[in-house]
Amino acid sequence: MDVHDALALLAAAGTERNRVIYRRHGAGENQYGVAFKDLRGLAKQIGRDHRLATSLWATGNTDARLLACMVADPARLSDDDLDAWIGDIAYYVLVDEFVAGVASQAPGLRARMERWIKSARDWTAQAGWDLVGVLAAREPNLRDEFFYDLLEKIEREIEHAGNRTRHAMNGALIAIALRNEDLREVAVDAAGRIGPVTVDHGETGCVTPAAIPYIEKTLAYRKAQAAKKAGKPKAKAAAGAHRAPR
């Protein structure tokens, strides 16, 4: 599939209803309004195609760039490429997809995170703090001291950070708190001192979650899931105990 074929498919899949919704979220005018389930279906059809991904990105179209993040080969993007791509983005949904599909999968994740969280550009810093959340969830060998330093930085800087950066910092704090009990205690204390995190979500129903209740809710859910999982073998054993002997 070449870029012209892909754009034709995107154009055919877009709807005016989605375009209106996506504009409210900041997608701008250069978009087709393609539903994410359709984007993911098309990405599955295409598979990994890095050449197509770079051509899609070059169009500047939001849907094309979302699709590019789904079909690109992260290993083939240099640090300069990744810096250029994040520098092109001014839409938080695209930042999230870029981080999930590309920036978090390419080599050099930690150095990239450390570089981007220092950026004065809101979207770049958002991506950096999104990567902090990825590291907290995915890298068990990182020492707690690494995250203590990041929690201090969040508490020190979140009030004056950019709009989407504040949202991502709040998410990073939550992810760090869910990593282990020691980090959770420090993160919860920091969240209490920070207080409510105000983020302008525009004309949307999106909210930035209060960190402490969100952490508590997630832990309760994990506990319930663990209990449910632990109970299944017992239920099977109990059922087996009542079977007639052969």
- Based on secondary structure, the structural category is mainly alpha
Q: Round the Cα radius of gyration to an integer and report it.
A: 21 Å
What percent of residues adopt helix (DSSP H or I)? 55-70%
Order of helices and strands: HHHHHHHHHHHHH
Low-pLDDT runs of 5+ residues are: 234-246
Strands, count: 0
- The outline comes out as globular
Please give the largest β-sheet. none
Tell me the span between the first and last alpha carbons.
60 Å
Question: What percent of residues are in strands?
Answer: under 5%
How many separate domains? 2
Overall mean pLDDT: 93
The number of helical runs is 13
Characterise the protein shown here.
- Helices cover 70% and strands 0% of the residues.
- The protein has helices at 3-13, 16-24, 36-46, 50-58, 62-71, 79-88, 92-103, 109-116, 122-138, 144-157, 163-177, 181-194, 211-241.
- α10 packs parallel to α12 (181-194).
Secondary structure blueprint with pairings:
Layout: H1 3-13, H2 16-24, H3 36-46, H4 50-58, H5 62-71, H6 79-88, H7 92-103, H8 109-116, H9 122-138, H10 144-157, H11 163-177, H12 181-194, H13 211-241
Supply the key terms.
246 residues; disordered C terminus; globular; single chain; mainly alpha; 70% helix
